[in-house]
Amino acid sequence: MNYDDPDLLDRLAAEYVFGSLPSRVRRRFERLRQRLPAAEEAVLDWERRLIPLSASVPSERPPARIWDAIDQRTGGAARRSSAGSWRSLWPVWGFAFGIVATLGVIRLFPDAMPIEAIVQDRGTLPQSYVGVLTDAQNNAVLLASSTRYGRLLSIKRLRPVQVPSGRVAVLWALPRDGAPFAVGIVPMAEKATLTLADTSEKLFFDVPRLAVSFETALPARGATPSPFVLTGHCVKLW
Amino acid sequence: MVDPVELQRLLSRVALGDRRAFRSLYDATSASLFGVAIRILNRRDRAEEVIQDAFVNVWQRAATYSRATSQPMTWLTAIVRNRALDVLRSESARPVESLHDEEDGSIHETADERPDPLGLLERAVDETRIRDCLGDIQGPQRQCLALAYYHGLSHSEVAARLVAPIGSVKVWIRRGLARLKLCLDRPQ
User: Fold this and answer.
1) Which residue has the higher pLDDT, B90 or A87?
2) Segment B18-47, tens digit of pLDDT
3) Residue A82 CA from chain centroid, whole number
4) I need a labelling partner for A15 at 20 to 30 A (CA). Which of A27, A100, A103, B7 fits?
């Protein structure tokens, strides 16, 4: 079949969403939509178009046991996924562990290696706040780090990020209690720095998680974020 | 009808692993999605499995939801419909073995207690004010659209149900979809 033909793609997408394709053709089109963006777009168009037809279907409350089963399955899945993400982030956590180990030495031998010595030796303070942001597949995509009293956030891009045209990638801090707030626009370079509105200590003290969404501009204070494309833990190392 | 903005907010929170938001999302949408699954599968037990699978999928994929491309209910309904259609197709492809067929010579079928799909289509058409567009699609052609969408029947299954040639069913569905596209894309 010639899948470059937009009319053919539209007809197949229409019948795929409508539900009338036979099993074999349906499976073939399912594979096609995963690798051909034009097919996926045609499917999204038809889903949007046909959704009013589902509105006439009477609602029916599922029995309570369904939620219990979902809760159980997602709780287990979340734990497994969490374990998996820690394993997949070994290189990143190796970096973080290096910092912790260095700081451990400082704590054990404060006279032998005062923090000032580290600063003198490295030219900078070790990073205090470290965030690792992953995509939906648990791939580490961005590493954000900052010194405790610094106003610069270092961003290291570990994988390419496809920012849609006309949008910017915005970094959000998600406080333990309270609404998310925009930290700034993430520069799309392999290594970059982002100037913070305040010191890391003040901004991230109560922030266990970070996230990135695509926005048209840096959102105003109190704005609701778009769906997050990257999320991750924010850890205070010392 | 749940506020789409609220559903978008809940999906954003679910993407962060917020279980309370996940429960709220389930409470707000599961009844309507369960209705959709039951209509397609005609079996409550299968529809319950589909809803379970669909919400596990939502929990795992919420971060991939993009409000730029879909309304939340459109995205959720597509997940449920696709899962239900996959289950339906795999069941219809599975050979049915019965221990009793040889004994009494009868075929046992589950009674279809779902509302008439044509009635659902009529209601939807009225609510979306596209009646005039589908005005000249009547009789078996109209029923063919209703059976395919609400009961998830394939071309050959619709043909068997309506005792019509499969070639005609394919043409009716294609023509009906072209007409629906014209109607539903028209600004209201």
Assistant:
1) B90
2) 899 999 999 999 999 999 999 999 889 999
3) 14
4) B7
Q: Where are the alpha helices (DSSP H) in chain A?
A: 6-18, 23-35, 37-54, 64-88, 90-108, 115-122, 200-204
- B96-136, pLDDT tens digit by residue? 433 333 333 333 445 565 667 877 887 777 766 666 667 66
Distances A92 to A72, A156, A211 between C-alpha atoms, Å? 31, 11, 17
Contact A53, B149 (CB under 8 A): yes
For residues A38 and A12, the answer to whether their CB atoms sit within 8 Å is no
Asked whether the beta carbons of residue A77 and residue B16 sit closer than 8 angstroms, the reply is no
Alpha-carbon distance of A9 to A21, in angstroms, equals: 13
Q: Which helix (H) or strand (E) holds A155?
A: strand A152-157
In the three-class reduction of DSSP (H, G, I as helix; E, B as strand; rest coil), residue A133 is classed as strand
Is residue A198's pLDDT more than 50?
Answer: yes
| All residues at 6 or more sequence positions from A6 whose CB lies less than 8 Å from its CB, including other chains | A38, A42
In this structure, how many other beta carbons lie within 10 angstroms of the beta carbon of residue A63?
11
* Average pLDDT value for residue range A118-131: 60
Size of the A and B interface in Cβ pairs below 8 Å: 170
Rounded-to-10 torsion of CA A117, A118, A124, A128: -130
- Of the candidates B186, B55, B39, the one whose C-alpha atom is nearest the C-alpha of residue A19 is B39
Q: In the 3-class helix/strand/coil scheme, how is A165-226 assigned residue by residue?
A: CCCEEEEEEECCCCCCEEEEECCCCCEEEEECCCCHHHHHCCCCEEEEEEECCCCCCCCCCC
Percentage of chain A modeled with pLDDT above 70: 76
Locate B157 and state its tokens: 């299954």
CA within 13 Å, CB half, A199: 9
Q: How far is B104 from chain A (nearest CA, A)?
A: 32
Calculate how close chain B gets to A103, using CA atoms only, in Å: 31
Q: How is residue B71 written in tokens?
A: 């309304």
| Distance from the first to the final alpha carbon of chain A | 60
Residues of A in contact with B55 (CB under 8 A): 70, 74
Q: Which residue has the tokens 């965030």?
A: A131
HSE of B121, CA atoms in CB hemisphere, 13 A: 22
The two tokens of residue A150 are: 């610094």
Q: What is the pTM of this model?
A: 0.58
| A15, A17, A231 ranked by CB distance to B16: nearest | A231
